[in-house]
Inverse folding.
């Protein structure tokens, strides 16, 4: 009950703040948007790695799917969107909601495809398989000419003879075309509205029967199974919802950065999200949000020593695991070791 | 036909390098039941150690005795690095959850990669020609002698490993510990020594693999360990993790599949194909080709 009011009032607050974002310095505004996107990524991964105790190392793959699909649709189908919904604020809003949801859904479908077979595996194997899937997704995108392959994607050329492409083909240099660049839909409101939505969603999910199921899977899978908990179902639900929000985050990223490169979604991006979850404390929403904020601002502060960034990240991981494996804000569950 | 033979030799030499790395994964997994993610970085450090040893010894022309010295020094250095990592990062976590150890291993792997970038520089460096490469024809295919050298060295190293594991006291201890750690320690086997020894063997093989890889692909950079490391891990899973001959066979298979994919299909998928194999094997036969089924006791 309380959380509902909190959720709605935070949406209103985000809307009001959005009216004043033109007063924010563009540099800080960019960081602010990336903080929001990283919060969505980290909290959605927390659902899989934190609450359900699985270990996914491929979150960047789902983000890539959401980013590429939504951006491809909003450029290749730009004439369609303009004709159907108009070019005003209303039309743009509708178009953006459609591509966001499509991006999220595509990532969720990929989540099902990846999750159903690989969630039978545990621990290390799951980590490697998800990493493998994310790599495969990246390699496939890298070889897709329609989204610019390894050159990256800025927008779609729609030629008068009906051909659509991400680059001007060599034999069509003299055909007239219209270039539809990626529209800059993402703003403060959309980013933080989705931050509020995912927090509200996960908060409610965790306090429902599903949440109990997730925690049961995390605590002891065999015991949960023998108590009649359908562990596969809960794992897949956690995985697919996590993938959906990663797709949304990707779509937000694509419509803000306006340029996508397959290398943006490599193994290191996945690791970055994992570090946020681990640093904050697996299964602690507040901790993960704080970690996402810190780890987005930190690289900006460390810009002068950027070559040390990954060294600091990796040392953080190691020291954290050696001294406080439950994360800064995580709760350690003391369990009796059975041997 | 000639192209086929060429691809076959390429695949075998790449595969034997994967096999050497995979053996390290399998040995550690057999005993500690965790993936030593940093193993690929040991491979990378092996390549750089070879480069700097060659520079220090002033080797810039092909010289077989010197090549052996470089190989030996590299194996010793990587063995020391491997044991140090084990003592500092993994040993304190011996009773922690698997996830904690896995995350630590990922952390160590990233740390070594970026420390490498800091020390060696991010740009690729060229590895000196320490062994002369002579091309000759077999059935119309042009084969470099390097490929043959790599295959033979890998086979010799694997035979040495087999001798250590099957015919020495330490080897028996390794097999005992990987069979049942608790029971082995009750029989008076010093677990810590066995684990250290495993890391020594595994890391020196990875270091040797780094040198052999650089002989064939003389451009080395600090991130070069990531993909061969993952592919070797896949090879270990394919052969049945914990199983020595399995790791060797798995490595050869991954190497062959990769070169044939590049040769007959598309170079784009050279890295994706290994992951596809992993996913298929985990779905069809998670214990791998030669693995035994592990019964989970509650």
């Amino acid at each position: 009950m309380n959380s509902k009011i909190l959720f709605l009032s935070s949406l209103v607050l985000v809307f009001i703040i959005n009216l004043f974002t033109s007063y924010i310095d563009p540099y800080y505004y960019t960081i602010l948007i990336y903080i929001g996107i990283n919060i969505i990524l980290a909290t959605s991964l927390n659902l899989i790695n934190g609450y359900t105790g699985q270990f996914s190392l491929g979150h960047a793959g789902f983000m890539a799917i959401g980013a590429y699909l939504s951006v491809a649709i909003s450029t290749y189908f730009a004439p369609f969107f303009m004709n159907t919904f108009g070019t005003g604020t209303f039309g743009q809003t509708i178009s953006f909601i459609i591509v966001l949801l499509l991006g999220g859904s595509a990532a969720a479908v990929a989540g099902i495809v990846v999750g159903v077979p690989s969630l039978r595996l545990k621990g290390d194997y799951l980590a490697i398989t998800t990493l493998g899937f994310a790599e495969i997704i990246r390699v496939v995108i890298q070889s897709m000419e329609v989204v610019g392959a390894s050159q990256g994607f800025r927008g779609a050329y729609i030629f008068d003879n009906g051909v659509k492409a991400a680059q001007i083909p060599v034999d069509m240099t003299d055909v007239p075309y219209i270039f539809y660049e990626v529209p800059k839909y993402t703003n403060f409101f959309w980013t933080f509205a989705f931050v509020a939505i995912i927090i509200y969603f996960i908060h409610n999910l965790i306090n429902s029967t599903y949440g109990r199921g997730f925690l049961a899977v995390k605590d002891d899978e065999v015991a949960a199974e023998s108590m009649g908990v359908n562990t596969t179902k809960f794992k897949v639900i956690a995985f697919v919802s996590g993938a959906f929000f990663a797709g949304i985050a990707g779509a937000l990223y694509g419509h803000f950065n306006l340029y996508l490169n397959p290398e943006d979604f490599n193994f290191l991006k996945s690791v970055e999200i994992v570090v946020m979850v681990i640093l904050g404390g697996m299964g602690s929403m507040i901790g993960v949000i704080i970690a996402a904020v810190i780890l987005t601002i930190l690289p900006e502060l460390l810009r002068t020593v950027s070559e040390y960034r990954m060294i600091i990240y990796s040392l953080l991981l190691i020291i954290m695991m050696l001294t406080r494996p439950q994360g800064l804000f995580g709760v350690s569950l003391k369990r009796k070791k059975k041997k | 036909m000639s192209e086929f033979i060429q691809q076959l030799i390429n695949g075998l030499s790449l595969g034997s390098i994967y096999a050497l790395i995979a053996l390290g994964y399998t040995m550690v997994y057999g005993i500690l039941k965790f993936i030593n993610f940093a193993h690929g970085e040991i491979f990378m450090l092996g390549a750089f150690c070879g480069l700097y040893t060659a520079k220090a010894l002033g080797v810039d022309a092909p010289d077989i005795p010197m090549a052996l010295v470089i190989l030996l020094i590299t194996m010793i250095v990587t063995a020391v690095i491997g044991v140090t990592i084990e003592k500092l990062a993994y040993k304190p976590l011996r009773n922690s959850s698997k996830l904690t150890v896995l995350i630590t291993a990922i952390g160590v792997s990233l740390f070594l990669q970026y420390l490498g970038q800091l020390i060696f520089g991010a740009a690729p460096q060229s590895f000196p020609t320490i062994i002369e490469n002579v091309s000759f024809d077999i059935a119309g295919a042009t084969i470099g002698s390097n490929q043959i050298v790599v295959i033979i060295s890998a086979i010799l190293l694997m035979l040495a490993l087999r001798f250590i594991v099957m015919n020495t006291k330490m080897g028996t201890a390794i097999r005992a510990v990987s069979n049942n750690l608790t029971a082995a320690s009750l029989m008076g086997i010093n677990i810590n020594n066995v684990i250290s020894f495993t890391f020594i063997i595994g890391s020196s093989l990875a270091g040797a693999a780094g040198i052999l890889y650089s002989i064939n692909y003389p451009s080395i950079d600090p991130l070069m360990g990531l993909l061969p490391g993952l592919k070797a891990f896949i090879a270990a899973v394919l052969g049945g993790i914990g199983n020595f001959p399995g790791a060797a066979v798995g490595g050869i298979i991954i190497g062959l599949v990769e070169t044939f994919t590049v040769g007959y299909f598309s170079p784009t998928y050279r890295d994706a194909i290994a992951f596809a194999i992993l996913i298929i094997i985990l779905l069809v036969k998670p214990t791998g080709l030669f693995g035994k089924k592990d019964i989970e006791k509650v």
Residues 57 and 128 of chain A are 7 Å apart (CA to CA). Chain A is about 70% helix and 5% strand.
